[in-house]
Amino acid sequence: MSTFQIDFSSATRKRIIGIDLGTTNSLAAFMDLTGPEIIPGPDGSRMVPSIVSLADDGSFVVGEPARRLLIDRPDRTVYSVKRLMGRGLEDVKDELKLFPFRIAEGSEQVIRLQLGDRTFTPPEISAQILKELKRRAELHLGEEITQAVITVPAYFNDAQRQATRDAGRIAGLEVLRLVNEPTAASLAYGLDKRREGIIAVYDLGGGTFDISILRLHEGIFEVLATNGDTHLGGDDIDNRLLAIALEDIASEWGEDLSHNGEAVQTIRQAVIRAKEELSFRPVTVIDLEYGGRRYQRELRRELFENLIRDIVDRTLGPCRQAMRDAGLEPEQIDEVVLVGGSTRIPMVRRAVETLFKAKPHSELNPDEVVALGAAVQAAILAGDVKDKLLLDVTPLSLGIETMGGVVSKLIHRNSTIPASATEVFTTSVDGQRNVLIHVVQGERELAKDCRSLARFDLKDIEPLPAGMARIEVRFLIDANGILSVTARDLRSGKEQTVEVKPSYGLTEEQVEAMIRESYEKAEEDLRERQVREARVEADNILAAVEKARSSDAWLELTDEERAAIDAAINELQMVYHSGDHLLIRDRIGKLDNATRKLAENMMNTAVREALKGTKID
Amino acid sequence: MAHVHDCWHCGAKDAASLFCRYCNTIQPPTPDYYEFFDLPRRLALDPEELKNRFYTLSRLLHPDRYTRRSEQEQRFSLEASSILNDAYRVLKDPIQRAEYVLRQEGFPVGDQRNRDVPPELLEEVFELNMALDELRGGDLDVLPQLEQMRRKFLDMLSAIDRDLEALFRRHDDAQGDERRQVLAEIRSTLNRRRYISNLVQEVDKQLTARNA
Fold first, then answer.
1. A551 partner at 20 to 30 Å CA-CA among A35, A173, A471, A576?
2. How many CA atoms lie within 13 A of A218 on its CB side?
3. Do B64 and A217 touch (CB under 8 A)?
4. How many angstroms separate the first and last alpha carbons of chain B?
5. pLDDT at B111 over 60
6. Cβ contacts (< 8 Å) between A13 and chain B: which residues?
7. CA–CA separation, A484 and A475 (whole Å)
8. Chain B residues close to A177, C-beta within 8 Å
9. ipTM of the complex
10. Which residue from A220, A380, A421 is facing B55, i.e. has the nearest CB?
11. What residue ranges in A44-83 does DSSP mark as E strands?
């Protein structure tokens, strides 16, 4: 680890945390005086499993407690939701065969997941994970956290990035920056110790694969090229093993369990255990019990490697492409860094070593390194770390659809961001008032083969003969990798109205409604808790007074004092069910006053009783 | 060309293009790539020098440095960084750099799809099309010939790149009309280069399609 030059001169400012919102696990980290640190939960755990379950009372169970619910309440529990972020129904057809996602009706514009009798979008589910991390951070750091850096796979497209930012906003976090996961990892490794050099970051996580090639130059981390696959990861390996186990069980028990959510989850957890063990042992046993029956099957590493060889091979193409794009040969790569839990698999390590002809780094925990890097980036944004700077790139080319559905590329992949392009548009019909621009992302030549991002409607164009209008449109990809579009009428110099119609994902209005709802919910939650706490306190004092009625202290009170207590009790009982915690507390205060004498008497009695038992010689 | 304006922050006249020379606040950036890098309008540029300026300016202008600043400053930082990155991408590549200067000097480039075969290439292009037709027809015997032609085109490209280097230096030393004459020469050289480079791409496409 490198040493961090940290300037805490302005430590009173709001703290920014770093978050790794992962497919399988999520983590938060912050910059301590000595360097980035993982924020533990109250139980000391460092990771929050990315599992969310809807409880019967409408609240959410997140993380480790939800893991059990995957088996007990599979219809209300969801995992690996990152796979659905910013995606359309068409994109995830194949996923749906392998993952027990329950897609609700009306999922055309944005996917909705059914949990019990309610539906949620993927950003809303992810927001629950973020809220849990936010809560942990607030408990651990003892201050309110409202700003964060969140990491995303480098190969995430615009819609997936927007969905991640939406999730942050719904969780009550201002997302100051989205950072690419491999780039964040390189920050955490502090490889800038060597000042100059080329490094490759190979990141195989639960659901996504990224490769990034960076040049280090005196604290600047300049990404030269990135590539990847947002649908490739440990989940795919689990699904392979799961399919085999299911088939095996079907022939052994004569029962097809593949449509039984509870059974599938039990088997999934067993094959994951076996997979993880095979990283340390040459042989293991898939071992599980379901419905009173036991299934055991030996699994050798050689067989495992044969099963997953093509998955590992699928990561190599993107690696070669990234090196080509960076104009580099494997010999020119100075260091290789491994990120993501799946890089613990020995076969993956061998493949990386062979390809890059270098022994990869894995000193830092591959599950934690991305969150640690996010914390470093947070400190850079806060101005606490001044000697480092990330220059990242856009992973996919940005283009517009032109005549015949052909894409005209405006910003090429691997361009350093922020990046921009300007195009002048005109009308094709006399008096035309609108021009519709279809923006796509991808490398293919036809728009239909690329990812549709949005349609931008240039509105209220001055009616002129065809071809006379001149609208200059500026496409700008910001440092988060997110596109914005502005337009200007070149004849009048006026700003032109642009209406955005995202192809997938939430509209601005929908996100705002969700944020409002979550605020209202938060207020509601707080109010309920305060009422509950006030009632508990009321119960305590009422019970204490009832108990005191049979004591000597009660008899020592005057009639007026006893009447005053009864009146105060009555008053408290009248507001007990009001739902107004302030009112309840006010009456508790009054009863407290009325019973002051009683309390004194009881104290004296107690002292007397105590003295009575003491012999004074 | 010079980008003269008053500082939006302290109101000083003649504030300079990236940071106000008086109060050092970030300014609305100049869109001119050479001015942005504070470089003379020359076609022969030292890549190391350009790279160092890019890193220095990145440190000063990147949005990461403006998270805690006013919205106005954040906007200028985003705008300036995007121009910086666009400018660096264009200026570090000799071809794109020349095209940028040509466009600025009023020489349209690349727009008209140059379908006319440069006369000195007529013979080669004819041969190439024959060979490609045969390949599409399934005749693999032309592969060595195609490979040989591809190498020939690549050699031509290298020769053109050497010519361009000389032309760049001539441009930088010339003034006025003479300079425009050199620019016209550069433009026709670039057109020829683009034509040959498209030929290479076409051959590569056919060869990869064959291998796949």
1. A576
2. 6
3. no
4. 51
5. no
6. 68
7. 6
8. 64, 67
9. 0.86
10. A220
11. 48-49, 51-54, 60-62, 77-79
